[in-house]
Amino acid sequence: MTTPPTRWELAGEDNRGYGQHFADLVGRGVDVAGEARLADALVPRGARVVDIGSGMGRVAAALAARGHDVVATEPDPALRAQSLATYADLEVLPHEALALDPGELGTFDLAVLVGNVMIFLAEGTERSVLARVRDLLAPTGRALVGFHLQAVKAGSRTYPAAEFVADAESVGLRVVHRFGSYELHEPVDDYAVWVLARG
Ligand SMILES: C[S@@+](CC[C@H](N)C(=O)[O-])C[C@H]1O[C@@H](n2cnc3c(N)ncnc32)[C@H](O)[C@@H]1O
């Protein structure tokens, strides 16, 4: 399947700092598992979790370390290489979101799209990706999605909260919660953490 280039891909070198930044933090023992702690709280023990756009692996590795069955998937080859270098035991698929096939992978208790994945998707694919997320969820499954609402990073888009909610609802997902952080602060204007469920 041919998919349009993602905003992440188009930004190219402008975003290369992300992976190294987190690898340096991990190397210094800094906690980079905030998103994973919230994800862990959303699922039963030993859950099936798919981390879409797993980047350098920090969230998927933290969830695997908590005993979950994690499918990590990252289309950027440089980030996959970095993930392997940092978390050698974490297998990472090369699929981009629209290439994830529930018929092949099964369904999940939780889909994770954190760290701005939604604002780096290919232009015009937001609803298709959200529809794919829906299809990857078990009937009681949920999605944890977090992103900056303004285009704060090179190549990213501005994605207003109301537009995101309309996109999610158009594909049969509903907003269960919106928070302002992974520590469940109340909603803020510049960043949103969403918990979505099927219809
Ligand atoms: C800032 S990185 C965040 C990585 C990781 N989720 C984290 O929080 O550390 C943004 C990621 O979005 C991914 N991405 C963008 N479009 C994607 C798509 N269509 N499918 C899968 N990943 C995508 C990029 O490859 C990149 O890894």
Automatic annotation (TrEMBL):
Keywords: Methyltransferase, Transferase. The keyword Transferase applies. Transmembrane segments: none annotated. One of its GO terms (molecular function) is methyltransferase activity. Gene3D superfamilies: Vaccinia Virus protein VP39. SUPFAM superfamilies: S-adenosyl-L-methionine-dependent methyltransferases. The keyword Methyltransferase applies. Residues 50-142 form the Methyltransferase type domain. It holds the Pfam family Methyltransf_12. GO terms for biological process: methylation. This is Class I SAM-dependent methyltransferase. It comes from Nocardioides pinisoli.
